[in-house]
Amino acid sequence: MTTHCSSAGHTDVGKVRRRNEDAILVRDDLGLWVVADGLGGHAAGHYASSLIVERLGALTRHDDVFDFVEAIEDSLLQVNTELRAAALAQHVDVIGSTVAMVVHDPRFVLCGWVGDSRVYVHEHGEMSLLTHDHVDGGPVDVTQFGRRTRAHTPGGVLTRAIGAESTLHIDWVIGGSRPGMQFLLCSDGVNKELSDEELQMTCNAPGDPQSRVDRVFELALARAARDNISAVFVRLDAS
């Protein structure tokens, strides 16, 4: 049985930050969905996330999904180089961003990520995390890139981000492509406000991807909303 995709996404500055450093891409026509979270506490995080989304959104896709994934990786490698050059020119340590991506193929779904933006999969009433955060230590309110030292306060440090190192490593996992499956991409601003159990309940409730996005933002903005908030829901339906 073949599948087609329906999706929805939204990004919001939240209640505390002055600028939204997140960016999203929702492209059912490409079978590509992206959440990028610019590094808070560093220069031009909004530029980094926007550049990622701009470059990936400009890609074209032909028949071979692996050629498309190679083009995604090439684009992110180029962005990595440009962000490092921009940081050098501006005399700052890092201009960077995390990224989480879902690529749909009729046979499978590919999930790629760098950093602590996440991708969840939901099927048969159960939700599980496809990604693993590139973070040393626990979650933090401000995403910083660097190494843990004794001078650091308790918490975590992001260990991988686009623009942070000369060599970029993108992790990929493969998942199923079956009608009824749902995927949630989100920045860590969502995880700071909603538990995995609440996200699962949102997916279990009746509704389309837009209603799920609306519910996530309703819950998050009713709380502290300390960080920028971004979420994209993708649902696979029978063709």
Structure write-up:
By secondary structure, the protein is α+β, with helices and mostly antiparallel strands. The protein has one domain: PPM-type phosphatase domain (Phosphatase 2c, domain 1). It contains 5 helices and 12 strands. The chain has helices at residues 45-57, 65-90, 188-191, 196-204, 209-221, and strands at 3-12, 22-27, 32-38, 97-105, 108-114, 118-123, 126-129, 135-137, 156-158, 171-175, 182-186, 229-238. The strands form 3 sheets. The chain has a 5-stranded antiparallel sheet. The chain has a 5-stranded antiparallel sheet with strand order 2-3-4-5-10, with helices on one face. A two-stranded antiparallel sheet has the order 8-9. A hairpin with a 2-residue loop joins strand 6 (118-123) and strand 7 (126-129). Helix 1 (45-57) runs antiparallel to helix 2. The longest helix has 26 residues, at 65-90. It is globular and about 50 Å long. The relative contact order is 0.23. Residues 147-154 have low confidence and may be disordered.
Summarize the structure.
It contains five helices and twelve strands. The protein is an alpha+beta fold.
Describe the SSE topology.
Layout: E1 3-12, E2 22-27, E3 32-38, H1 45-57, H2 65-90, E4 97-105, E5 108-114, E6 118-123, E7 126-129, E8 135-137, E9 156-158, E10 171-175, E11 182-186, H3 188-191, H4 196-204, H5 209-221, E12 229-238
Antiparallel strand pairs: 1-12, 2-3, 3-4, 4-5, 5-10, 6-7, 6-11, 8-9, 11-12
Helix pairs in contact: 1-2
